[in-house]
Amino acid sequence: MSRTVLLNKNIIISILIIAAVITLAVVDQYAYRSDSSFTPQMTDETPFKTVDNLEGVTLRTTKGAYRYNVDEMIYSFKNKTGRQYTYGSEFYLEKFENGRWYQLSYAPSKFDGLWTMEGHPLKPDSVREEPLAFNWLYGNHLESGTYRLVKPIHLSGSKDSDIYYLTAVFKIRIFHFL
Length: 178
Fold this sequence. Notes:
Elements: H1 3-30, E1 42-45, E2 57-61, E3 65-67, E4 72-79, E5 85-87, E6 92-97, E7 100-104, E8 120-122, E9 126-133, H2 135-138, E10 145-155, E11 163-173
Domain Bacterial Ig-like: 55-159
Protein name: Bacterial Ig-like domain-containing protein
Keywords: Membrane, Transmembrane, Transmembrane helix
């Protein structure tokens, strides 16, 4: 084969590979996105009756208020104890209405209600920040109001019955300027 034919063949193969990579990246980006028009509804009253009872460990969001179309936030654990704790990917969003907290319905998605079992360490006397993308589970149109993020955490090496639930309260606002 001539050098020109080989060069053209390599260019075509390169273009196809680049197109495949771009396609996979776009598909992966939207694989867990829910219907953008989904707005979660309040369902049952919260099952988390005892929260924020772990002395020396707190949960916060980096902002106290977000726009209605937020789909990701940063949260942080602050551990002011000499003990190590562990947390995973499990989380819940709840809305405050009429003096009570209510669970939010999940968006129609691939979520089957089961969480993965990874364990992220929260070392003694430390702060750990994590991004939280929740649009795949709750959509990206939260109504105006007061919400809280609920995250389970437990003392590393302890039994599962030693689970604590920490919360971070934040507001969703409809207007564009916070």
